[in-house]
Design brief:
43% helix, 211 residues, alpha/beta
Length: 211
């Protein structure tokens, strides 16, 4: 089994990466393989609702979103990390998740169905819980079990060395990794014992306008 760590920071080896690596080390210690992908720091367009993904099962913009979609099906779980920008997830991470999940949802890719996910947040001071809530909404919509730790999944610091000194934050990351490993093992045992995943139903799209 393996988990993909997604670094949504503009800095490839900054505070967010430090937190993700702590989660990854805990997963590795439990026998779960990990890889890390950086979404980069080049501009990422937001979703333009062109719906080309319905036919292609990929996004019309060919960038790191499609690189992620190409490999996502090979992973059993995901950890998405983001710094706090203006009290929310980074703009790059927001655009990345908007497009990646929308493309999979519309294209019927089924890359994420009932695969566990977790959000990891880094900040100098504040905005962490709002960002955590924001990212968890993606997982809820995609039917991805949300993995938690003993506290909210956040670290504090202005650079990697300061993050490493956030002893409680680092502990939260390790517990998160172990909790995800436990969930993955439970899921593996359930499937091996013959328990099938729930049968998906077709989407019933409605709005609040009634004729």
């Amino acid at each position: 089994m393996k988990v993909l760590l997604v670094n949504g920071s503009p800095h490839p080896e900054g505070c967010t990466c430090t937190a993700l690596c702590e989660v990854g080390d805990a997963l590795n210690a439990e026998g779960i393989d990990t890889d890390i992908i950086w979404i980069g720091n080049r501009p990422l367009s937001g979703c333009i609702a062109c719906k080309a993904c319905i036919q292609k099962n990929r996004c019309v913009f060919d960038d790191t979103v499609n690189e992620f979609l190409d490999i996502a099906g090979d992973y059993d779980g995901f950890v998405f990390g983001s710094p706090v920008h203006w009290g929310g997830a980074s703009g790059g991470m927001t655009s990345f998740l908007d497009r990646a999940f929308y493309a999979d949802l519309n294209g019927g890719g089924n890359r994420f169905y009932l695969k566990p996910a977790a959000a990891v947040i880094s900040a100098r001071r504040a905005g962490t819980t709002a960002t955590w809530d924001q990212l968890n909404k993606y997982f809820g919509l995609m039917q991805m079990p949300i993995i938690t730790s003993r506290y909210w999944n956040m670290v504090h610091g202005t650079n990697p060395d300061e993050v490493k000194k956030d002893l409680e934050g680092m502990q939260v990351m390790r517990i998160l990794g172990r909790n995800m490993a436990f969930f993955l093992r439970c899921k593996e045992l359930a499937l091996q014992s013959g328990l099938s995943l729930p049968t998906p139903e077709p989407f019933q799209f409605t709005n609040f306008i009634r004729e």
